[in-house]
Amino acid sequence: MVLAGSRLGGDPFARANGVELKPLIPVAGEAMVRRPLRALRAAAGIARVLVLTQEVAAISAALEADDRVSVERSGPTIAATIQGLLEDPATVFPVLVTTADHALLTPAMVAEFLVKATGADLAIGVVERRPLMARLPETKRTWIRFRGGAYSGANLFGFGSREALRAVALWRGVEQDRKKGWRMLFAFGPALLLGAGLRLRTIDQSLGAIGRRLGLNLRCIVMSDPLAAVDVDKPSDLALVEAILSGTA
User: Fold this and answer.
1) CA-CA distance, 145 to 38, in Å (whole number)?
2) pLDDT in tens, 21-32
3) Which residues does 232 contact at the CB level (< 8 Å), separation at least 6?
4) Whose CA is closest to 30, among 63, 65, 5, 7?
5) Domains along the sequence of the chain with CATH
6) Sign of the CA dihedral 137, 142, 145, 149?
7) Contacts of 212 (CB under 8 A, 6+ apart)
8) What angle do CA 50, 68, 87 make, to 5 degrees?
9) What are the tens digits of pLDDT across the range 158-191?
10) Are 84 and 75 within 8 A, CB to CB?
């Protein structure tokens, strides 16, 4: 599933780049949403791709024709959209979720994530700070620190079973704070927040504790390619991604 939603009331970032929707911002000469979609279509193990957006006609018009790809209307928020998908009796598991702004996604990243996520109820892709900063020392990301390292999200989520709905329901409760790592941790309990704050737990230990509370097999997937953490949220990200694609960064 590719999340290709847009901000209510318009997106200044999109408009500054000559379009109305963020997924349609040109990246290296083509609509941004086409790039992760191409990676998914080329990856082994992907049977079908569902693009979810509020603007079905506009996104559909930007995509190449492909019988394996469909575009449907999304829910009001990311968590609500994912919850609707997981609750649908027609959904076949496992489900991989990524975003339309994951412009550097590659088939190799997809393949690595799928293999490492096998058997988990919920798998979350992350990148550790050191390899990313070695590759892109000037980049700015949101980091959550644990014992042994700091991590940024890779916009890759694997839902291995319908049981993952327990985690999604909690996500909906803190969705507006998804960029604030401490608020997310606090939702799972003060002990977990304290363990992360004092760096007493590794990221695997922290997810293990969350999983036990929810009765789920939660797994952290540390991606080997640090570029998995690079998405396009702002003008500097767009410039960076285009530089990487052109080989100048």
Assistant:
1) 33
2) 999 999 999 999
3) 25, 27, 32, 101, 103, 238, 241
4) 63
5) 2-246 (3.90.550.10)
6) negative
7) none
8) 35
9) 999 999 988 887 776 655 554 554 444 444 444 4
10) yes
Burial 125-158 (b: 16+ CB within 10 A, else e): bbbbbebbeebbeebebebbebeebbbbbbbbbb
124-150 per-position pLDDT tens digit: 999 999 999 999 998 888 888 888 898
Nearest-angstrom CA–CA distance, 71 and 105: 19
Nearest to 31 by CA among 123, 86, 101: 101
Q: In this structure, what token pair is assigned to residue 233?
A: 């949220």
Residue 203 is given by DSSP the state H
CA 242, 97, 6, 24 dihedral sign is: positive
And the tokens for 214? 């929810």
CA dist., res. 127 & res. 44, Å (int): 22
